[in-house]
Fold each of these.
Amino acid sequence: MSGGAGGSGRASAERAVLRLARPYLGRLVGAGLLAAATEFAGLALMATATWLLMSAAGQPPLDRLTVAIVAVRALAIGRGVFRYTERLAGHDAVLRMITDVRARVFATLSTGRSATTQRSGDALSRLVSDVEAVQDLLLRVLVPGAAAALVGVLAVGGAALISLPAAGVLAVGLLLAGVALPLLATRLTRRSADQVAPLRGALAVDAIDLTHGAADLAAFGATGTALAAARGRAERLARLERRLAAAGFAVDAAGVLLAGLTAGAVVLVALRSGVGGVLVGVLAVGTLAAVEIALALVAAARQRTLLGAGLARVADLLTTPEATAPTATAPGAGGPDLGAERTGAADTGGATGLLPPGPGPGPGDAAPALAEGPHHVRLTGVTVRYRADAAPALDRLDLDLPAGRRVAVVGPSGAGKSTLTAVVTGTVVPERGRITVDGVDLAGYPPEQLPRAVGGLLAEAYVFHATVRENLLLGRPGATDDELAAATRAAGLLDWVRDQPHGWDTVVGEEGGQLSGGQRQRLALARAVLAAPGVLVLDEPTEGLDPAAADAVLASVLAATPAGHSVLLISHRLSGLADFDEIVVLDAGRAVQRGRHAELAAAPGWYREQWLRQEAAERGYLALAP
Ligand SMILES: Nc1ncnc2c1ncn2[C@@H]1O[C@H](COP(=O)(O)OP(=O)(O)OP(=O)(O)O)[C@@H](O)[C@H]1O
């Protein structure tokens, strides 16, 4: 990741972000000109009003003042109109651009391609506050900065019409206010500002850990330590922010002093060069107004310093290579289903709206499109290693999954089963070997199309703080009520939904917190069944269900899978596998046994041992069950 500290890193991050502004350049330039017009109207208003007041004191005939009176009114009204249209144009351009940036950042997060986004707090802060840094860079740095520079030049030009030496003094004052002071402000605040953004990110992660992990922290008696660490970070952040504020006030005070000194110097020089009294007054007030406008560059510079780290983090995501090293799916991204459209179903009771589709930078426009329906997935010699010095999580694995075939993968904990699902869904890129879908390299497909072809229920499926209907529609936007009912019935959740007062519109709570563990699992499973990808991946689909329910649910889910669709089941339970075409036993990433259930249950090895052990345990469980 490009660090936020270095000037060149900062500049390249800004360039990466600003490249996205190109389509809106016209609107942004328009907003900049309107901002300049606003400031210039303010400056001209002060100068004209001063001329009017001072001239009126000499009681000249009214017709000599008419133009100035009209000009004052026009400038006052014009300034308001310019300000309004500038805000409208600037925000319009920036909000359009921000939508693009958010979509891209989200696309990168949801495809799990960024190796640096493993934490949900971090991902959340990137999607929200870091992306706002892009908005601030344009609206609070570039547009006002450019406007102030332009008005400064115009002010010096205007002063030169009255007195050249006075214009020279004004130019020096403006350079000090608009260049030297901003540089000083940047120098004074950079070090603290570089520490503020990571600290804020750490506090966002603390907040999530302390709330989501509260029960576990309490269970291990670690609440006090975790709170103390978070408090320590919060206090450090407060100290830094106080320091930043103090430096800011000192620079602001220097700015006010500079405005007064410049105005005084302009008056002296103008008087010496014989400028008349009224015009000296105009120069003095105009100078005060012009320096104040130039001081906006101090605020812009300060803002720019604060934005550095956030911009670097966004740029890091925007420039993440398509697929490089093995990466885990970003937690909370909810797996591939999140490409679904916002459903707009009934009131979610304060629930999060589900996320919009991200355009997802595909590997190339020429990539083949993945149609709905059956697909043929094949793995040849696939090796995955999470770290260079670690043993492979998958070791030269071959797997053939033609249309309609059902393969179960079993094996001890850590054998590589979930890694296999990550590989076939494209979230982990193997170090060696090939994965093809219909004969074409998996990496050749646009990432946003893959979930429709290869997907389903992945490890730790996420249930959103939304209604049952919205959670389900994520799998297949636009599904009918009958389809919802069929998928929910297959997962054994339909009776529960029908018993709820709000039925499909029942809000399930944050992370499905208002459901039991089994209901949450069934809801996630129903979503996978509804999605009906051509290759249905089921990673421990019956986790958390009792043995009898597990067998029934697995059977009904398999029965609900459309003909021709293949199934890749990851399971630690060995019952219900009798009808599978192939069972692969993984151990340390290698396929150590392959065959159908009857063959494996008869042959000596891990499968037979495990099968006998589970049979005995479940017979005991069933005997004890009421
Ligand atoms: N994101 C990761 N980073 C580093 N190592 C990982 C990561 N995910 C898995 N591993 C390692 O890869 C190996 C295979 O893990 P994997 O989760 O695929 O096993 P599994 O068979 O699904 O295990 P379980 O049945 O316990 O879920 C393990 O040794 C694990 O420690």
Amino acid sequence: MSIQYQPQDGASEPKWKTVWWEEDEQGATVCLVDQSVLPQEIVSLHLRHEQQVADAITSLKVRGAPAIGVTAAFGMALAVWRFVRDHEEATLITDEIMTQLQAAGKLLGRTRPTAVNLFWAIERMLQRAEQAVQQPLLPQQLAQLLRDEAQAIADEDAAACLSMGTLGASLIDDGDILLTHCNAGALATAGLGTALAPIYVAHRAGKHVHVFVDETRPILQGARLTAWELQQENIPLTLITDNMAGHFMRSGGINAVFVGADRIAANGDVANKIGTYSVAVLAHAHAIPFYVVAPCSTIDLKIPSGDHIPIEQRDPDEVIAVRGAQVAPVGVRVANPAFDVTPHQYVTAIITEKGIAHPPYDVSLGQICSEHNTI
Ligand SMILES: CSC[C@@H](O)[C@@H](O)C(=O)COP(=O)(O)O
């Protein structure tokens, strides 16, 4: 199947869509670029059942905190859309549809525990439905309203990316050499990206930047996805293995680090892809600014510190084998936490779509994002 590749000249759009909604005579589909096979293959998936959407999230066919939230929202709309289509509309009652929606929310909520955007989006969809059914509504109208809400979540994420990009680009000077970890670009969002958005905006504004990209073991989001994305934009990059970051910081080449986040606690502790903590400590040791770029939907003001962030533990096979090729002895004991927590002391600033938060984060994050978090 072909990717929905949309070349854009404007600075505000990514070159392709990561997740989108389609309707045809057979019903609705949630469409994704399959990130598990990039960059060797560019394949789009067309999912007709919420179980397929949940499986796609679990298996990292779609990944990155904002993209997971947007996909889950579309998955919930899909569940209702399909349910309404499969039944005689006149026989359906609102309670049955709400039960279906809640079940889809539970299913999607079990996929990945760390990125709070997932739970934020599920909660927003449930609240929208609960509010809507206070008024008389036909089942098809409710399905359409939920599709529109999911699309609004996607559109707001795209706008947030552009805003983070514009704010973050002010921190990048012409000639800067930057380092990033994992993939926090367009593939991880419904827009330009989080950590990569300031880099895209700076580059499109004519600033010369060079990006060091950590390969990001074990799943290689840096090597497979970030390197590919930056190549599409003609942004100069150097791919390095994760254990080379200290070497390049010490030899004086790196001016700033930009990373995304999966969940940020009220005190500014940041959960992001495993290895981010090591990069933050290295940056601190070399007096290199360490910037976290994340929308307010990633900020969890309900938890006081990073100690409360659930860390996803993934299949040991991801560590034992690299792209299917076994690299470790059979039976070896393995640990595979997908994320780590960077204490707020190592974070120079947090760039949100509503402004740049500086320490103390328990004050600044609340001021910037509290309205957004009252879902
Ligand atoms: C804009 S994405 C920010 C984070 O979600 C990203 O850095 C990350 O850690 C993604 O992890 P992944 O396991 O690939 O979903």
